Amino acid sequence: MPLARSVLAPLAAVALLGSLPAWAEDGPVCAPVTKIPLERHLRQLSLDLLGRPPTVEEYEAVRAKGAVTVEDVRGLMTSDAFYDRMRAYHRALMWSNVSSSVNNNSNTRVGGTGTGVDPLSLRNNASGAIRGGNGASCDGYIPQDECSKKEYVQDPHVDSVGEARCYDKHDVPLPVSWDYDNTLYYQCDRQDLAADGKTVDPAYNTCEKAAAKFGAKYLYFCDMRRVGTILAPHLCKPSPSKTTTAVLTEERLDASGKVIAFAHPNPPAGTALTELKRCTLALESRNGVQGSYVPQRGCMEREGFVTRPAPFWNAGAAAVQVCAVEAQTRSENPWTKETCTTSRFTGDRSCGCGDNMRRCEAPNGVTHNARVAAINEEPERIADAVIRNDEPYFNILTTRRSLVNGPLSQLYRDGQQGVGVFALSAPAAAETMPDVPYADSGRWDTYIRGPQHSGVLTTPAFLYRFPTQRARVNHFYSSFLCKAFVPSNNKPPPAEDACNRENNLARRCGCKDCHATIEPTGAHWGRFAERGALYLEPSRFPRYEPKCEACALAGNVSCNGECAQYVMQAYDGDGAESLGRLTSYLYRTSDEEQNIEGGPQVLVQRMLQTGAMERCAVQRIWREFLGRPMSSQEQVLYLDQFANDFARDNYRLKGLIERLVLSDAYRRID
User: Fold this and answer.
1) How far apart are CA 110 and CA 360, in angstroms?
2) Rounded Cα–Cα distance for residues 145 and 151 (Å)
3) Alpha carbons 439 and 407: distance in angstroms, whole number
4) Which residues pair with 174 in a beta bridge?
5) Which strand (E) or helix (H) includes residue 632?
6) How far apart are CA 627 and CA 483, in angstroms?
C-alpha cells in the first residue's frame, strides 16, 4: 500500500488543489492532557452518538464500572438513535435535497376531488391546449357517455338535441358543452336578473327568452353559464377593456341575420387577433391535421366525465369521477400516431393519464413530494446499510446495492410515472426490482442496481443535486477528499493571447489550473446525462451517431429532439471533428475516454490508492464529534495515526468513531 500511494498520489493533485480552509486551525494543543470526569464523558458520548443525554440507569451502570469501556461505546453504536445520527450526518455531507433541482411545472398534476361535480382533471397550462383555458376542467354535470341526451344539452339555442357526438370514430372524447372565455377575450353580462340586479326573472331564464332584451341577432353569443349550480343566460361580446378585443367591432352575419363573428374592420399587417367566431361543440384542427384537436379561440370547450377505479396514488379506494380526456389510456394518438408516452401527452386530447392515471400526479403535489422525499432519502439509506453491516466505509461510493420504498419503486419500475417531470433511468430491470406498493412509503426493500452504478454517486439525488459533470467533481473532491479547486496566482497572459479563446477549459488561460483536473475527472460521469439522472446506455446512445452528424451538417441542430445528448454545433476545429458524438466525448483524450467507460467506480478506486479519502474521512469525523477542525498540531499528532488505523481496520466507520471517542483528544477539557 505505501508504494502504491507514493506512485498514485499525484492523481489526486493534477491541478492546484488546496485543503479546505476550515479543515485546519493553528493553535496550541493543551498540555498536560486533563481528561473530563466520567459522568461528563458519558454525557458527551451519549449526546454525540445518540443525540440525547444518558438515562439515570446508564449513569449508574458506568459509575459501577468506574469507566466508559469499549463495550459501552459499541453498545451505543448498535442503537437506532446512532443510525439516525449517522443518516443525518450523511444527509448534510451529500446535500441530499433535490427539491429545487427537479423542475416541475405542474402540468401533469390533476386537480379536483373526483367526487360530486368536481372530477379529477389537468387544470394548469395543459388545460389550455385541451379545453381552451388554463385552469378549465371538464363539465362535471354531464356524463360523457350520455352527452346527447336532451337534459344534458346546455345551449339548445345553438346546439340541437341529438347533434352532440360524445366521441369521434377513434373514441376520442369530444366537447359536450362550451362557454365563452370571459378572462382573456369576452365580457359576459348576465341577462336573467330583474331591475334590482339580484332577483332572477324567470321570463328571461333561457337565451331564447333573453333575446328579447339584447336582440335576436346576438343569440349565438348568448352563453348558458353556470352560476353556482344553475345555468343562467349571459350575453358575451369582445371585451372593451382589452386592446386586442376592443378593436373587434365589425359584426359578421349569417343568412338569417345573426352575428357569427366579431372582426377587426381593417387589421394592420401582423395583427395577432383579427376575428372571434361564435362558439360551438366543434373542435378545430392544428394546421389542418385531422385528429390534432385544438379548442376554438376564445371558447372553453369541455368534455364530460366518466367513472374509473381509484388512481394509483389511492389504489383500493372507491371509484372516482375523471374527466373523459384524462381517463384515456392510449400510448399514441390514433389519428396522427404521435406518442402519448412523453410530456406531450398533456397537450394531446387523445392521450390521457394512462392506466390508473400513472402519467399524472395527485392533487396538491402529494405525489411529487413523496417522490422527491424518497429520492432524497435513497443515499442516506445506502450509507445506513453500509454502516449497519459494518462494511468498508467507502462502499457508500461503490456499492451497487440500493433500496426503494413505494413511491421510488413505482417511479423506477413504471416508465410512465413522472413522465415530463423526471429525466431518469431505471437503475435495474423492472422485473429485478422490488415491487413495493406506492402507498407504502415507510417500507424500504434492498435490490442490486445495474453494473453502471456506483454507490451514492449515481443516485438521482446526487445527479440532480449536482447537475453537471463539473459540479459532481467539485462535490466529490469537497466531501470525500477535503480538497477545493483553487486557481493559481500566476499573472494571466494578455487578452489578445489565443489561449484566452480556447474552448477547451482544460487548456484555456486562467481556467486550466483547475480544469486540467476537473475535466478528466468529470469524464467518469460521462455516461450520465447532465441536468438529470438519465443513464446514457451505450446501445441507445452510442459514442457516435451518424444521424446526428447529418442533422448538424444540415443545420438542423434540434434533429427533431433526438440528438440532445450529442455535439450539434462546432465552435472550433475539435468541435467540427466531434459533430455527432456524445457531448461527453468532446475534447477528450484516450485516457479520458476510458474514464467515461469506467464510470465513478474507477475514480473511487483510484483515489483510495492515494490515501486522501481516509484522511478526509478522519478529518470530517473529527469535526463532527469534536465540533471543530483539527489544529495543525493535532493533524501531526493524530491524522496519519487515525487514517492508518482506519485503513487497517478495513475502513470500518464504527471503528474510526470508536477510536476517536476513546482517545485523549476527545476526552480533553477544552
Assistant:
1) 7
2) 13
3) 7
4) none
5) helix 632-634
6) 20
Report angle CA 29, 33, 34 to the nearest 5 degrees: 125
2-8 contacts, C-beta under 8 A, 24 or more apart: 4/609, 5/609, 5/610, 5/611, 8/606, 8/609, 8/610
Q: What whole-number distance in Å separates Cα of residue 305 and Cα of residue 88? A: 47
Rounded CA-CA distance 641/618 in Å is 10
Question: Three cell numbers at 172?
Answer: 376520442
The alpha carbon of 77 is separated from its chain's Cα centroid by a whole number of angstroms, namely: 35
d(CA 196, CA 174) in angstroms, rounded, equals 39
Q: Vertex 520, ends 95 and 612: CA angle to 5°?
A: 60
Q: Which DSSP category does 638 fall into?
A: I
130-186 pLDDT per residue, tens: 999 999 999 999 999 999 899 999 999 998 765 558 999 999 999 999 999 999 999
Residue with cell 480552509: 21
Q: Give the Cα separation of 418 and 253 in Å (integer).
A: 49
All cell numbers assigned to 106: 405542474
pLDDT band at residue 496 using 50, 70 and 90 as cut-offs: confident
Residue 494 to residue 499: CA distance in whole angstroms: 9
Residue ranges in 427-567 assigned as alpha helix (H): 460-465, 469-480, 512-522, 546-553
Query: Are the beta carbons of 306 and 142 closer than 8 angstroms?
Result: no
Question: d(Cα 490, Cα 513) in Å, to the nearest integer?
Answer: 10
Cis peptide before 175 (omega within 30 of 0): no
In whole angstroms, give the CA distance from residue 518 to residue 503: 15
Q: How many other CB atoms are found less than 10 A from the CB of residue 574?
A: 15
Q: Is the pTM of this model over 0.70?
A: yes
Helix, coil or strand: residue 93: helix
**3-class secondary structure, 472:** helix
424 within 8 A of 460, measured Cβ to Cβ:
yes
Which amino acid, one-letter code, is at 391? E
Model pLDDT for residues 219-261, shown as the tens digit of each residue: 999 999 999 999 999 999 999 999 999 999 999 999 999 999 9
What is the DSSP secondary structure assignment for residue 669, as one 8-state letter?
Answer: -
- Distance (Å, rounded) from C-alpha 103 to C-alpha 464? 10
- Residue 11 has a CB neighbour count (10 Å cut-off) of 16
